[in-house]
């Protein structure tokens, strides 16, 4: 099941409606009667406007641009200026006229110190108009801080094409808020029904005291067609100016995470978007609180904490989120670098290359041996974090503008659970974030996005929840590594700018080293709660190249930076128990895929690509569920009591056809104590061959038939029986690869279809293959919890000899059918039989021929 918040959630619509009603209830100064054309905005017949109803306006103008030192376009505004803090919203409903808006035509909400002056200081929250045909509706927050000064924009186009691509350009909401000296812009899509905004996006923010709350401004609607001398008309609805909306006007980015403190508690961290000098940023952070918890600039005390803070930083479009102030400075004593929250000095002196040293073994992350260097005439007394590396640099406390990472002393006893679906029996809970418009450079940004979206779904274009049996996805119509990959849930093929969070639970039944591996384009991260990853047989905590390469940070294994294809492996020594698992990845651009696999043992030196020792976590071949933990006898004469899971396999020499083999083997099944056999064993899979006579190579290790002799053998039969429990509802495909004929049944099942050289058998509960030598398969729909006696009969006539039984679920995988009883596969990862658990098996297998087993054990 998929749930798309953009299309189906009432939460966003209700929030938008609440915002709209809030503003409408606090309307002020929204009578737009003053109209002016700046420069060539008057070309083609001049500017014009209409007012067809309350809050509804049209604005016709030409104009080359609102940019540079003076503007060209039209401005429709209220001649009465607005004082103090406020929020303005409007719905842009489209364009018409004798010329479509050019690519750089822009329309939206504008605030100007002087509405009559073309060169006035202004803030413009606008949508890039594009054309009606291409619907280019990227958003821009631009500003001119002083009359006659230059114009700039905060970051790049936002939310931009990733957020809004493919959508109609005629139902877009804009919001512009003044919150003290901070200006904040946000986007929303129309709900398409009630003419209200849905989820409001992550914001853009700009600080300018020249247009702060103490400065009265004209507020209205601006438009320029960028098609001079022709004109274009922009249409608006729902324009309102009211009291500051605390959500729309928040200068915080909306990304959220939590960092652990030395006492084990957890503090909340967020990003303050406007660029400020260090001294101001320090004071602003100290003035903030969250739920009563005081704030301060964030103070990293460990590698994981530092890296988590770095996950809040934005990486694209020249935005100064690329560098952010942290709570570390030497303003009290030159050269004594102290944390802001408690004054602890963690570094003394200049960079290590000049003799500087950490104090008392404290954690530091300076950018090479030359930092800090106290460069420049003003000196550099404040620490900033570089987004691309999470490294620290010293910079001046005045004159340098940066965003800020703010930490709140929430002191939570535990880290809040990540929002999103939990795994079910046999599934991961997967949450896809479509249209992130967030150029990740740190995979922990996905975690920050997940927390943020839990509080405000509008941070992304769409959230899609589903249950998935394994992580093996691609979005470029390519299957690069593990066969059986499927498209990312809810993400159109060949998409960019999306992220994924998957959660589940695994159970370890046998103590051992386990190797986990993932490939991803772009970065990815695996967390196993309660585990510690290491690189070798010695459990040493190691990490390398956190700026882009593989890193192991306690229970994290990650490849953080954007890359064409990560191939990351990590080993953890696990004891029996249940472990929570979280897997995250992101795709910035250029095609993407991801897969998560595991193997038993320390296989750090092996390539996981198409390696039979590695299988997708969640793949049925990873291990069984023994449900229930008792033997169910298939026939009246069989005797229960065995506690050994697996296939009971018997051999009978003599049959020279499958028609002769079936009654010979069934006689043994009917009277296991009285009928002789020529070989017996318990196997967790059916994957046999004759080493001397040769057999098919099926890509994974094979074992000799029971009763094998040193010479090539002909004319014998194999029978195998077990009980299977379906742990997932779905269509199962059972494939028998063999030389020669075979019969495979799930006794009591129905509705089979057959393919390859197989036919549905006479009982209607399986498949029948008359002779050699190709794959035959059958498909049947099974419900979770159903149990069946599984029976295979196969025979060898002459020449090479082999047989293997495989299966897949809902078109995914091609796995050996069985358990991990004999350790012939790298198994031991088993399903937890609770609703919140995650399965690494599709079937549980229980051995049946207890009488044969007892006879062999007592012989």
Write the layout of secondary structure elements.
Elements (H helix, E strand, L loop, with lengths): L2 E2 H4 L1 H16 L8 E5 L9 E6 L2 E6 L3 E3 L2 E8 L8 E11 L9 E7 L9 E7 L10 E6 L7 E2 L6 H5 L7 E8 L2 E8 L14 E4 L10 E7 L7 E11 L9 E9 L5 E11 L1 H10 L1 E2 L2 E5 L5 H8 L12 E7 L6 E4 L5 E4 L8 E2 L23 E5 L5 E4 L6 E11 L15 E7 L9 H12 L6 E7 L3 E3 L11 E2 L10 E11 L3 E10 L2 E5 L4 E2 L15 E4 L2 E4 L6 E9 L2 E11 L5 E8 L14 E2 L30 E7 L4 H13 L9 E4 L3 E3 L13 E2 L11 E11 L3 E10 L2 E6 L5 E4 L2 E2 L5 E4 L6 E7 L4 E10 L5 E8 L2 E5 L12 E2 L12 E5 L2 H9 L1
Parallel strand pairs: 21-27, 30-31, 44-45
Antiparallel strand pairs: 1-29, 2-6, 3-4, 4-16, 5-6, 6-15, 7-12, 7-16, 8-9, 8-15, 9-10, 10-11, 12-13, 13-14, 17-18, 18-27, 19-20, 20-27, 21-22, 21-25, 22-23, 23-24, 25-26, 28-29, 28-32, 30-40, 32-39, 32-56, 33-38, 33-40, 34-37, 34-39, 35-38, 36-37, 40-41, 42-43, 42-46, 44-54, 46-53, 46-57, ...
Task: Please provide a written account of the structure.
With 859 residues, the protein is mainly beta. The protein is 9% helix and 40% strand. The strands form seven sheets. Strands 17, 18, 19, 20, 21, 22, 23, 24, 25, 26 and 27 form an eleven-stranded mixed sheet that branches. Strands 1, 28, 29, 32, 34, 36, 37, 39 and 56 form a nine-stranded antiparallel sheet that branches. Strands 2, 5, 6, 8, 9, 10, 11 and 15 form an eight-stranded antiparallel sheet that branches. The longest helix is centred in the N-terminal third of the chain and has 16 residues, at 10-25. It is elongated and about 105 Å long.
